[in-house]
Amino acid sequence: MNCKRVRREIIPYLDGELKEANELQAHLDGCAACRRELEDLRRSFAGIVLAEREREPSISPSPHLLSRINRRLDEIEEYSFWISATRALRWLFVRERVALLGWCAALVLLCLQLGQHVQIETVTFHSGVDLHLAETRIELRLGDLMQFTLVKFVGA
User: Fold this and answer.
1) How many domains does the chain have?
2) 139, 150 in Cβ contact below 8 A?
3) How many whole angstroms separate alpha carbon 57 and alpha carbon 16?
């Protein structure tokens, strides 16, 4: 391995990602310039890491943090109970509206099924008087259980 290739692969070597680490180490053992460059990079990285650590503030939680968190969790649990209760009530009212809509639809279908038949017949009696018999039959059928019939007679 030559110095140019070592300079290209020295960062992956420091990161532990170089597959040919043995070859690079053999070159470093024999080349003082590359060894100095490696040490300079290690010192630079160590300085950067140290500067980053010094820049980060030390974070320590307040002594009452746990009690405040527990208190807040209790409030959230109480609040969530009321939220779930109001959502359940809203859901019931929605179900009530849907049921009412279903009943209205059933009533409309029932009215459409209501059969209304009108038959007009002329009946002549022996006395010569014609009587128009208007039979208005309104049938309301609920299955085969019930049937209502309304008949209306109209004079001549």
Assistant:
1) 3
2) no
3) 30
Q: Mind giving me the DSSP string for 16-46?
A: T--TTHHHHHHHHHH-HHHHHHHHHHHHHHH
Q: Do 98 and 123 belong together in one domain?
A: no
Task: Write down the H helix ranges in the chain.
Answer: 3-15, 21-30, 32-55, 65-113
Overall average pLDDT of the 93-112 stretch: 81
Structural domain boundaries, residue 118: 114-148
Task: Please give the Cα distance from 21 to 27 (Å, whole number).
Answer: 10
* Same domain, residue pair 126 and 102: no
Q: What one-letter code names the amino acid at 62?
A: S
- 105 and 131 share one domain: no
pLDDT digit string (tens) for 46-73?
888 777 777 666 667 777 888 888 888 7
154 inside domain: no
What's the chain's length in residues? Answer: 156
